[in-house]
Amino acid sequence: MNTFRTAALLVALVGLTAGPALAQTPPPPPPTQAPPTQQPPPKPTPPPVALPGAEPGYVETVTVVSATKAEQKLVDAPATMSVIGPRALEVAPSNNYADLLRAVPGVNVTQLSARDINITSRAATSSLATSQLAILDGRTLYQDFFGFVMWDFMPSNTNEIKQIEIIRGPASAVWGANALSGVINVITKTPREMEGTSLLMGAGSFGKEYCGPNPLVGGPCVVTNKGVRNGSLIYGNITHAQVINDKWAYKLSVGTYQSDAFARPTGLIRGNTTGTPYPTYKNTGTSQPKVDLRVDYDGTEGQRWSFSGGHAGTDGIMHSGIGPFDIKQGTKFSYGKINYSKGALRIQAFMNALNGDATNLVAVDTAGAPVTLDFNTKTFDLELSNTKAIAGKHVLTYGGNLRYNQFDLSLATLENQRKEGGIYLQDEIFMGDSVRLVLGARVDKFTSIENPVVSPRAALLLKPTEKSTIRLSYNRAFRAPSAINNNLNTIVTNAIPLGLFNPAFGATVFRVPTAAVGNPDLKEERMDAFELGYSASLVDNRVIVSAAYYYTKLTDEIFFTQTGEYGPLSPPPGWPAVLNPAWAALYTGLATGKPTRFPTEFTYLNLGEVKQQGVELGVDAALAPTTSAYVNYSYQKDPDPNFALSELNLAPNNRFSMGMNYSSPRVFGSASLSYAGEAFWQDVLDARYTGTTPAQTTINASFGVKWSGGKYITTLKTVNLTNRQVLQHVFADVSRRQVMAELRVNLTK
Questions:
Q1: Nearest 10 degrees: Cα torsion 731, 701, 52, 655
Q2: Which residues of the chain have pLDDT under 50?
Q3: Which of 165, 277, 370, 643 is 20 to 30 Å from 627 at the Cα level?
């Protein structure tokens, strides 16, 4: 990491963007969604919802848009949702999105490397998690070509974020494909809400490694870099927002995040009976520069335009079913977006472009060269939505989108474009002061799927009192096969030194080939979800209680799975006939003491049905105007498939989080604890690399001070305070303590 270069860049940015102090004017109401032009029927007053670090008055009424794409109170949403607000972000002990979302009930998070984050609601996550949709100001970050989210391209400065809305459960009824297990919608502040110039600088280091009895793996030491220097990270951002006049405003944000590599585990893979050691390869960190520009125009008669664009870079490790890929420096992501709104009408168009290359660190081809992935993809999307009140008892929300993808993929050359589109309609029916019924459906058509896909939704909202709600709901969602799922075409090999069996072969290495191919006949994954939920506001609106029970049935889930293996009497093509007895001995275990099996092919298959169920409980309490606390518990029963359970990752059965936040005009801070039970992983390479991760408890904390009336803010942040060795996936890097010192400067105060 070139620390000096990064620091010099930040100083230069300050000089370029710092200007005279701007007058601090109260921001106008946020333009996320204006009220419909027709007034909806009267609604019962919803219970206020406490937010961590709430202002005096103890509570805030939270408004969300993710559940229906129309603005509504959180308590009225026809889906189970959580919201992380600006106060919680201010006192958070980490800027890492994995750490921010880990405390949300029902959400499973894994960080496999310094840059590789995967998130899934109400099911086990995985490498390249594909079922969770991520949205940034209405623009998807889901990468259609591989079907995963690159969290690298979220804002580097959490101060830019107004709130993060998390739908815990299927949401295809309005969001369409890939909102299978949920949606994470990040909404940033407008230029008017951020008027001024602010600077963020932070640096940190990782906890020291040690050797000793190893709870993670079978060997004496868990990491490969014992005795080597600790890792470090550095990040920074400068944001300038200016209100030019009553029509125009803009915001420019430039930032960077750089981290050294985490440690790699060594020894034998935990929970695996094959005696397979962790593969050794050169691990890497990540470097993520970003620049974003947004220009807003407020027209007459409530018309609003927003123009935004940006560019970001990334590099580092991305784990996959055929092993880890090292995304090379120079990989870049660009986007452009236009929004128009008037009242509840919203029209949006955006373009995402991702271009780069990656080299596999484990898998090699028949010539012994690393498998490479070159990717150049573009996504174009046009969307419209609107909300109208009809006949005093109905609120209709409707819309649709058209999407076009271009692919240029070295590992999947058979498809270079994909078209899709969908329309949806939802009716919120007011059946009285205490009863509401939400009915809706969406229809999507993909060029890669034979038939249209229908995603219905139904929710009954009962309000026994003004401040409590019971919700019974049904949702169906789907995930479309990605271009890689349909068209992957490569060969990976395992090397066998023939001299081990016959000295006459000397140093000759035979490479056992395994085909990794796509499946053009895949169906979409479908999830049917039933839920019973409850929320209530107690103790003068100072305590919010929530509970949910869910039951889901996932049909035709797409798995990357082994479809054959070389038998004891059927060695791979080219194997020396004279060594056929040695091959049989290798297969049976006579040669090594343990059977060694080599797959002939991996491909993507739709496999049967998987039933899951779980319970989520949560309490948020405002203890004082400056202090809030939360506690939540999630139980996920092991899935019930109608095929081999070994084909599935198994999420922790029990997850528990608790924390306390404090925020006053001068000092602020937080302390939190998270627990996750044992988990099982089988989604990287073949059965030799399956294994378990132990139960894990992490403690995080932060402490900050505001100086000169808030012009300067210093914060000390700590993740994994006790420096425990945390392995979040059996193939993941080892996470240790991270201590970060941070300075925020509001240059216009």
A1: 40
A2: 1-60, 211-228
A3: 165
The number of beta carbons lying within 10 Å of the beta carbon of residue 692 is: 16
Domains of the chain: 3-746 (2.40.170.20)
Strands 509-517 and 599-624: parallel
505: amino acid identity, one letter: F
Give CA–CA dist 114/285, Å, rounded: 5
Q: Which burial class, exposed, middle or buried, applies to 392 when counting CB atoms under 10 A from its CB (0-12, 13-18, 19+)?
A: exposed
CA distance linking residue 398 with residue 503, whole number of Å: 73
DSSP state of 12: H
What are the backbone dihedrals phi and psi of residue 404, each rounded to the nearest 5 degrees, phi first? -135, 130
**Non-local CB neighbours of 118 within 8 Å, separated by 6+ positions:** 109, 110, 111, 112, 125, 126, 127, 128, 129, 148, 149
d(CA 42, CA 61): 17
What pLDDT shows up at residue 209?
Answer: 64
CA atoms within 13 A on the CB side of 192: 18
pLDDT score at 218: 39
Residue 299: exposure state from Cβ atoms within 10 A (0-12, 13-18, ≥19):
exposed
- Beta carbons of 178 and 480 less than 8 angstroms apart: yes
The single-letter DSSP state of residue 433 is S
Burial letters 713-737, b for 16+ CB under 10 A, else e? bebbbbbbbebbbbbbbbbbbbbbb
What is the model's pLDDT at position 35? 38
Query: What pLDDT does 427 receive?
Result: 94
* Integer Cα distance of 23 and 75 in angstroms: 37
Closest residue by Cα to residue 384 from 403, 399, 404 = 399
Q: How confident is the model at residue 210, as a pLDDT?
A: 54
Q: Residue 505 CB: number of other CB atoms within 10 A?
A: 16
Please list, residue by residue across 641-674, b when 16 or more beta carbons sit within 10 angstroms of its beta carbon and e when fewer do: beeeeebbbbbbbebbbbbbbbbeeeebbbbbbb
The amino acid sitting at 626 is T
Which pairs count as long-range contacts for 348-352, CB under 8 Å and 24+ apart, including other chains? 348/138, 348/139, 348/381, 348/382, 348/383, 348/384, 349/380, 349/381, 349/382, 349/383, 350/138, 350/139, 350/380, 350/381, 351/378, 351/379, 351/380, 351/381, 352/139, 352/140, 352/141, 352/378, 352/379
Pairing of strands 468-479, 132-136: unpaired
Q: How far apart are CA 657 and CA 675, in angstroms?
A: 6
What is the rounded CA–CA span in Å between residue 656 and residue 748? 41
Give residue 335's identity as a one-letter amino acid code: Y
Nearest Cα residue to 355 out of 323, 321, 328: 328
Count of Cβ atoms closer than 10 Å to residue 316 Cβ: 25
Distance of CA 649 to the CA centre of its chain: 17
CA distances from 64 to 32, 61, 538, 704, 729 (A): 9, 10, 21, 29, 33
Find out whether 430 and 393 touch, Cβ atoms under 8 Å. Answer: yes
Give CA–CA dist 282/94, Å, rounded: 27
Distance CA 707, CA 196 (A): 17
Please tell me the predicted confidence (pLDDT) of residue 10: 34
pLDDT value, residue 266: 83
| Distance between first and last Cα of the chain | 33
* DSSP string across 737-748: -EEEEEEEEETT
The DSSP secondary structure of 518-554, one letter per residue, reads: --TTPPPEEEEEEEEEEEEEETTTTEEEEEEEEEEEE
Q: What percent of the chain has pLDDT over 70?
A: 88
Distance CA 115, CA 419 (A): 30
Q: Beta-carbon neighbour count of residue 581 at 10 Å?
A: 12
**What is the reported pLDDT for 17?**
31
SS3 letters across 130-174: CCEEEEECCEECEECCCCEECHHHCCCCHHHEEEEEEEECCCHHH
Give me the pLDDT at residue 321, please.
84
Write down the pLDDT at residue 61.
56
Q: Which residues contact 237 (CB under 8 A, 6 or more apart)?
A: 156, 157, 199, 200, 253, 254, 255, 256
